[in-house]
Design brief:
It is a single chain. With 149 residues, the protein is mainly beta. The protein has one domain. The protein is built from 1 helix and 8 strands. It has one helix spanning 2-17; strands spanning 53-60, 65-75, 78-88, 96-103, 110-113, 122-129, 141-143, 146-148. Strand 4 (96-103) and strand 5 (110-113) form a beta hairpin.
């Protein structure tokens, strides 16, 4: 009887523990009426349009490295500056990779490539100044879908 209960318990644990919906990075379903959106960037001054800026850098995953860029423009409300810093600790991935960093012009967000999983810690810092956060929930939050602080 103990063997049967142990088998059932381990089977249930494997089934429910390996369910993809239980990922820690999965978004919380807050209901069908919730509309999530990026924080909008202010329009550039002088009627210009924002162009997406993409930077690339070769990083040796075995030795680690740092990839740091900033992007700034004049808006109708002042200067908007975005700063991003990726710190790859030694052993983060194998071989050399050409990492890309794109400043999203559709909202306060960054996009990185190529998609990969890391074997060691990668620290990410993103700072943005010059945007209006009126009406944004000030609770610190970070996920693969966006963040607010």
């Amino acid at each position: 009887m103990k063997k049967l209960l142990t088998f059932l318990l381990l089977s249930a644990l494997a089934f429910f523990g390996c369910n993809q919906e239980s990922e820690i990075t999965s978004p919380v379903n807050t209901g069908p009426n919730t509309q999530l959106k990026l924080i909008q960037l202010p329009q550039p001054s002088s009627g210009l349009t924002l162009e997406t800026q993409t930077y690339t850098q070769w990083i040796d995953g075995a030795n680690g490295g740092e990839f740091q860029k900033w992007y700034s423009y004049q808006s109708t409300t002042g200067t908007v500056t975005q700063f991003a810093d990726l710190d790859f600790l030694p052993g983060a991935f194998s071989n050399w990779k050409n990492i890309s960093m794109t400043f999203n012009t559709g909202g306060a967000a960054m996009e990185f490539g190529p998609p990969m999983q890391f074997q060691a810690v990668v620290e990410y810092t993103y700072k943005i100044t010059g945007i209006d956060l009126t009406g944004v929930n000030p609770i610190p939050h970070f996920s693969r879908y966006g963040f607010v602080n």
